Amino acid sequence: MKALILAAGYGTRLAERFKDTPKPLIPVGNKPLVDYVVDKLQKVQGLTEIVVVSNNKFATHFQKWADKRQGLPIRIINDGTNTPEARLGSVGDMRFVWDKETVADDWLVIGGDNLFDGDLSGFVHFALSKTPAITIGAYDIKDIAAANKFGVIAIDKDQKVISFQEKPKNPLSSLITMCLYYFPRQSMGCLKEYLSVSKAVDAAGSYIQWLSEKKNVYGFQFSGKWYDIGSIEALEEARANYKG
Q: Is there a contact between 54 and 8 (Cβ–Cβ < 8 Å)?
């Protein structure tokens, strides 16, 4: 099993204050956002490598960060883009990385700014029990009005995803996706199938929505705190309240 950290964004909504710092490397508490992600990944049994996909603007920033880390090996992959307009998007970056891999692996995919309580062991254990189906991380933000900024899902008693709305105008619930996915190696061919019929590569939610309509997808619901670091206000809230 390998982990892929999505970190190729340009942080445009935070650029006014952090123009030369990629969002995952912005500090919260005494360390960068991405360190919280990596610390959780270090505890996942069976994980052999962490891959971080970045853009050309920030790849060296991530390499300097990775060189200081200990534990599981971290490999930085540069997707070659230089501007927000040229970005590959989450799905595009997954394809970019996986096209370079020569060995089939299970992949745990997570956003580099994903700040949440708890560890990943329960998520991975649940995902393995549902293989070859795909599993996604879910969180109840308890605010239906605010859910329209995210992918909104409904799950049945077996935690199977039975509906998925990508940033709906009128959300059906406040249960949203977290940019956390488990893709068993048996599911890797689905991405090529999706890209043959869709050009929506910017948000992974579009891919998950398509998958949930074609395949079995399960949702693992996290409790505790979760922060969407998409604005200065959200960042300051996390800095004030998140304890890691």
A: yes
